[in-house]
């Protein structure tokens, strides 16, 4: 039953080593507002409110009509369970008027009553007046509480509306100051953060260097202030800064990083504004490149004569892979893998070679056929043609008006390749060995 639950909770409060704990304080307040028994922080047991006290005879004969509704009024009043709603109930049930007639039974009496209080209960839509004693007995309420509510109703309000309970709304004496929180944010943001260039559309996080962690950052923070906040507060505020230590799956852009460093180091406002505009233009060009890529991908899906491919030279693989330091510095062979991905069909092709055959008929030159310097970072558009084997067509922008430049990659003294045939290394897909297969 509810009484058993309250009794068990009160026993836990009495036996608790933390009588000021948050949960215990909340339980204590709830029981008090519902008229249930509770235990104070000092361990004193307070009995619950009860309607067992009988009504007394009075000149208004309240007992004749109030006795049958006494339990219902008591239960509805204490089921409110809120201090503010109890105030509203009392304020609506009690009114104050000026005293019409006063009489002193003794001439030397100092009694000077200027106001009269009227007490009412609303039963089935009818407002009935009762005496003060029957009113207090029915609700099992204190006279001081009722008097205070009425005084606030007529003194602190023009319209007679009681104010909201102000208890518990003041600032906590143990609360961390706003200045301390600002110092924490200032320290966290003082570390250099990097933005992922290729995933910024789907992820707006910034990344801190991999050698940092929250423990190191907090230790550095403690050296900067004489009154540091706790580590829990520091970590809580760190989670609100949209920063992360997670290793990015994509590299950052060389140009974006260079622009960011130049903007941070520049003190001239005009030069800084020009750098910001150039950086925004570079980001816009990158976004346009992704847009063109999506359009070309859709075209290749609709028309089989158009092929849209992406290629990437993957990480160099040491062969053989040994962790021994002596073998690491003595090995000479590296394996390379050039991957081409057909965006329309989703199929990928890999061209695998090693150091022994790297010196072939093609060579990467530093100048194009016009004698201009060739820089891979500046290339925005690449095209191959079957009629121009060994030559790379490229542009440094995505403009349709710019003409393609030609980079001749045929090694001097080599014959022009006409047919390239790659022998398959395997006749079919290889099975996974038992050693590599992962069992659940």
From TrEMBL:
<protein>
    <submittedName>
        <fullName>Uncharacterized protein</fullName>
    </submittedName>
</protein>
